[in-house]
Amino acid sequence: MENNEANKHENVAKAEEVKSTNTTAPQNTQKTENTQNSQNAGKPNEAKPTGDKKPPYNKKRKPNNNSNNRARTNNSRNNSAWIAELKKAHSINERSHKERLNPHNKLNLSTNAKVRITPLGGLGEIGGNMMVIETEKSAIIVDVGMSFPDEDMHGVDILIPDFTYIRQIKDKIAAVVITHGHEDHIGAMAYLYKELQFPIYGTSLPLEMIGSKFDEHKIKQHRDLFRPVEKRTQIKIGDFEVEWIHITHSIIDASSLAIKTEAGTIIHTGDFKIDHTPIDGFPTDLHRFAHYGEEGVLLLMSDSTNSHSPGFTKSEKTVAPTFDRIFSTAKGRVIMSTFSSNIHRVAQAIDHGIKYGRKICVIGRSM
Ligand SMILES: [Zn+2]
Questions:
Q1: Which of 230, 231, 318, 303 has its CA nearest to residue 273?
Q2: Which of 46, 245, 274, 289 is most enclosed, with most CB atoms within 10 A?
Q3: 345 to each of 183, 206, 354, 357, how far by Cα in Å?
Q4: Rounded to the nearest whole angstrom, what is the distance from the C-alpha of residue 249 to the centroid of ligand 1?
Q5: Residues 6+ apart with CB under 8 A from 78
Q6: With contact defined as beta carbons under 8 Å apart, do 37 and 81 qualify?
Q7: Could you tell me what percent of the chain has a pLDDT over 70?
Q8: pLDDT band at residue 189, thresholds of 50, 70 and 90?
Q9: How is the beta sheet containing 254-261 ordered, strand by strand?
């Protein structure tokens, strides 16, 4: 739209130029003056450099003869047409900026549709992420994570969210939807599924990680509830339409969720670290965020550890030169520790081990 408008103005500008040259073709003096005019087109009030005694082209001068007079009439008409065109383009662009920067104006705020969001963990704390999104008739649970005890919680191994509210509304729960495979997002799944079961939607890595938890807790049969999803595809779940959008994070195969409800679209970013050069070669699908942004978003839920710290986190790729230096020069063993879920880091360590002909050994409970 903006481009078309810009092209239109450019064409008008060209047409004016041609017309102006044709009109003045018979007389050399006028031709010179009009050429000057078209060179100055678009900047009518620009002052001449000092030292040049000639007045600006649009400043009134005494006419020399009649034909000059005619040319001037043309000029001033052209000038006023130009100014009108510029003003029009300016106001169109102003309006376009307003629309672009305020897409929420596209939301239907007169709807009576309602959506209720209840966080059961993960807000104001690290870990235990679990949230219920519900309408009058149906509900979905986003993530079922665990958290770790403080040093004064003696004898406590892990913490899981309080499932009381889930028990109360269990009949309207259509599914559990999973953003990514971190423990604080899937770590309590087995504890919930021992008691209550719902379909589980997610991408392949988080589902497989939940699967191994089910195996460990001897509820392998609940793998039947897995519903693997394709990113960029809207899936109808109860009253909701949910799309998984690829986002970069310290674990691979992470997703944001676009949740369409009758009340409007909710964007839940999930955990993320925007990395434009991720190790697996799959950067964040910013185009899908832009798509929903254009449509208008009712609510954005965005949460990222250390988001209150200024600056940005460097790409995972920046680790490579350090690995290169250490792996190539170390005389003995190289011992590297990391979160087991940081698959990008583990992959880089293995790649460098192979590159420098070293043997690789992976140790750790969840490695
Ligand atoms: Zn995470």
A1: 303
A2: 245
A3: 17, 18, 14, 18
A4: 7
A5: 16, 19, 20, 37
A6: no
A7: 79
A8: very high
A9: 234-237, 240-247, 254-261, 264-268, 299-301
**Where do we find the tokens 């939607």?**
201
Residue 184 CA to ligand 1 center (angstroms) comes to: 7
> What separation in Å is there between the alpha carbon of 331 and the centre of ligand 1?
35
Q: What is the pLDDT of residues 82-135, one digit of tens each?
A: 999 999 999 999 999 998 888 888 888 889 999 999 999 988 778 899 999 999
Give the residue from 236, 292, 304 showing the smallest Cα distance to 266: 292
Question: What confidence tens digit (pLDDT) does each residue in 208-253 have?
Answer: 999 999 999 999 999 999 999 999 999 999 999 999 999 999 999 9
Amino acid at 274: I
Interval 291-314: pLDDT, tens: 999 999 999 999 777 778 898 889
**Strands (E) located in 204-315:** 226-228, 234-237, 240-247, 254-261, 264-268, 299-301
Continuous segment of H or E residues that includes residue 139: strand 139-144
CA of 327 to the centre of ligand 1 (A): 28
Global pTM value: 0.75
- Whole-number Å distance, alpha carbon 251 to ligand 1 midpoint, is 7
Query: Residue 12: pLDDT band by 50, 70, 90 thresholds?
Result: very low
Answer for the pair 181, 143: CB distance below 8 angstroms, yes or no.
Answer: no
Cα of 342 from ligand 1 centre, angstroms: 10
Instruction: Give residue 354 CA to ligand 1 midpoint distance, Å.
Output: 28
How far is the centre of ligand 1, averaged over its atoms, from the C-alpha of 134 (Å)? Answer: 23
Average the pLDDT over 161-184 and give the result.
Answer: 97
**Within the chain, where are the H helices?**
2-24, 28-40, 66-101, 164-168, 183-186, 189-193, 204-216, 286-295, 320-329, 343-355
Give the distance (Å) from ligand 1 centre to CA of residue 267: 17
Distances (CA, A) of 145 to 121, 338, 366: 8, 20, 16
Q: Are 139 and 238 in contact (CB under 8 A)?
A: yes
